[in-house]
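In response to a reviewer's request, we include the raw inputs and outputs for one of the modeled complexes. The two entities were modeled together in a single run.
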Amino acid sequence: MNNKEFITKLAKRCGMAPADAAANVDTFVGVVTERLKENDQLNISGFGVLEVKMRKERLSVNPKTGQRFLVPPKIVPAFRPSNKLKDKFK
Amino acid sequence: MDAKLNHSDLSALLAKEANISGAKAEQFTKAMFDLIIEGLEKDGIVKINGLGTFKVTEVASRSSVNVNTGEKFEIKGHRKLTFTPADALRENVNQPFAMFEPVEVDDSYTDNDEDVESIDEETAAESVAETVVEEEATEEVREESIAVEETAQERFIPTEEEMPAEEETPAESTVAEFEEEQPVEDVPQQETVHVIEEPASQETEEVVEESLPEEAAPDVEEPETETVAVAEPEKETKAEAAPVKEKTADVANEKKPALMPEKEKKSAGITPAPKKNGGGRGWIFITILLLLVAGGAYFMLNGNGKKEQKPLVAAKVEGKREKPSGNNSAAANTVAPVDTLAAAVPDDSVKVMPEPEEEYRFVMCDELAARSVKSITIADTLLYEAVGDLAMHTVENGDRLTRIAVKYYGDKRLWPYIVMYNGLKDPNGLCRGMELAIPKLKARK
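The model returned the following C-alpha cells for the whole complex.
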C-alpha cells in the first residue's frame, strides 16, 4: 500500500476529501517529527512506540580499499511494534 | 523534551495544528493507525510520505544451541514488523549531528568510548543552542553555522591530539616495563646458574679430595680402602637425599647390604688397573668414582621406587621376609598393595560408619591372613560377593562412584561392585538423582 492508496482509503473511512486527508496526514507527520526532534517518545497503544535512538560513532572500513572511516554519531528514528502487533504478524 | 506522549496527546497536538476539533483529530489518528495495520495485513507494506515505510519482513529459521543442555534446536522462521524512516524524518531527527561527515582516519586512531561520550554531551548541548538560535534572525544563523563548524573542528582536533598522547604513554610504559622486567628476569637466571653450579662443583671437589689421598698411598690394599672410602660418601649422599623423602634410617640400612656386594665386585675388578698404569691412576680413580656414583644413583632411583611404597608398610613381617630373599621389585610391588590395604583398613575404621564397615574390616583381616604373595587389586579380582542390599544411595551433586564406595565400604577401590550390582552400562555416566543399590559385600572363599 503506497501513500496514494493510503490517503484514499483514509479519506473514505473518515468521510472527508482526499486532499483534506492528505493535509491532515502531513500535519500529523509534522507533529510526529517535531516531537521526535525533541527526543519525545510516542506511545500509540495497540500500534507501537515511535522514538529516537542514539547511535554512537564508530569506525568502519571499506573492505575494497581498506580505508578507515570514522562514522559520526547520529540520532535515528525507531519504531518498536507493540506486542499485540508483533503477535499479529508472527 | 524526553516526554512520553500517548495517543490522545498526539491527537490534541494534531487538533491544534490542523485547526480541527479534538474528537475529530482523535478519530482521524485512530483511523490512520488502524489503516496502517490493515494495510500491513493485506499488502505487508505501508508507505507514508514524510514518515516512513512499515513493512512485514520474513526472518529465516536458524539453528541455535540450548545454553543449558547444549542441544541443538531450530529457531523457526517468523515474520517481523520493521519500520524504515523516511529521509525527511531521518534528517530532521538527526539535525544536531547534521554537520558531521564520515571522516577518513589513519590507522593510528583507536576507538575510544570516552571521546564518544564527550562529543555526545557537547553536541547535545549545542543542539539546544541551535534550536534557540534558529528561531532568531538568519544572520545569526550564518554566524552560528560558522561557530558550529569551528566547534566541530575543535571537537575533532582534540580527539586527534589526544591520540598521539595516548599512544606515547603506553609505549613509554611498556618500555619501562621492559626495563623493569629485564633485571627481574636476570636475577633468577643468575641464581639458578649458581644453584646448579654449586652442587656440581662441590661434588667434583669431593671427588678430587678423595682421589688425592688415594694417590698418595700406593699400597696394594688401596682398593679395599677405596671401596670403603667410596662407599662412605655414597652413603652420605644417600643420607642427604633420604631426609628429603622421609624415612632415612630404614632406607639406608636396607640399602647398605644391597650395595655392598656390587661395590666389592667393582673393587675386585678395579684392583689390577692401578698396578698397570701408575701415571694415569688419578684419572682412572676419577672415572671409577664417577662410575660408582652413577651406580649409586641408579640404586638410589630403584630404591626410591621401593621406598615410595614402603611408607605404607604396616604388616612388616611379610615385607621383611621377602626383601632378603630377593630384591625383585616386582615381588615388592605385589606385596605393597597388601600392605597398603592393611594400613588403609585401620585408618578407615576410625572414620567411617560402623555398621557395614565392621563386617568389611573383618573380611579384610581374613583376606590378609589368607593371602601371602598374591597380587591383589581388589577391584578387578572378584574376591567379594554381593549379598543383598546394604543401602540405597541417591546420587547427588559431586558424587562419584569412588566416593560412594568410600562412604559405604571405606575403600574407594570397591566401586566396581556398585557398578556390577546396579548393572550400570557406563560407569562415567552417573546422573544426579540416580538411585543406586549398594550391595553388601562378603568375602568369597
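As requested, we also summarize the result in words. The first strand of chain B starts at residue 4 and ends at 5. Chain B has 14 helices and nine strands.
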